[in-house]
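BUG: 3D viewer hangs when loading the predicted structure for this chain

Environment: internal workstation, default settings.
Expected: structure renders.
Actual: progress bar stalls at 90%.

Input used:
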Amino acid sequence: MRFFVIALFLFLTILPGFYQTGAEGTERKTISTIMEKARKDGAEMTLPDNRHAEKGLRAAKKAANTFNSPDFQEQIQCEQERLEKEVFGDYIAAWKKKEKSSDGQSSQTDGLADTEQVYLFVSSSMPDETVHAYLSAIADAGEPKVIPVMRGFVGGMADIQAGTEYFRRILKKDLRCQNAREPCQRYQLEIKLKSPLFAQYGITRVPSVVYESQGQVFLIQGDAGFDYLLELINREVKSSALDNLINKIRNPRH
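Structure tokens produced before the viewer hung:
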């Protein structure tokens, strides 16, 4: 009798496990069968032809041609320049042009000549600290012919608020400033939003520096200090004005 009770107890304990194992095996088998059927159905499935494909392709080509046309690009450029003035006017103040003497020559003998121009190409995809370091170097140099350039508005033309917030943040003299008691001080720099310049100079990565003088263009691309990038260019061009610019960046007057 005692043996019978023990055997019955073991049978009742083990039996649910057999049912569970059997159920799991059945479930795995069912899923496997469904997956195999789905693979076979997918291999045999034929999608109908898109009767609008040719029409859609023509429309896409027309839209691309319109967007890339000189007239449309000029409209975009004009709209960007308008928004630069009207939307970002409080945060991006244009530098004053160098004063001219009576003979038409620049009164700043140590600045870049009228035939010289420097562009620094940056992007909002770069860390704020990196972009801020470049802007700080340009501000310290105080050279109006050194222009930072971005491809366009942060977040696109449809999100003006994102662009406003970005420039408000990036132009702070101190990135940690939070406008707690007094307004944060900001660099009064002109940041050009000109995507055509990226294509004109073949910019494929940022940061990049372009130096142009009398029709000659020198380009260097790489993540390094602004003064060092200028120094690499000046090893080729040997411009005394660039020498002065590099010294101003390295020895700022506050």
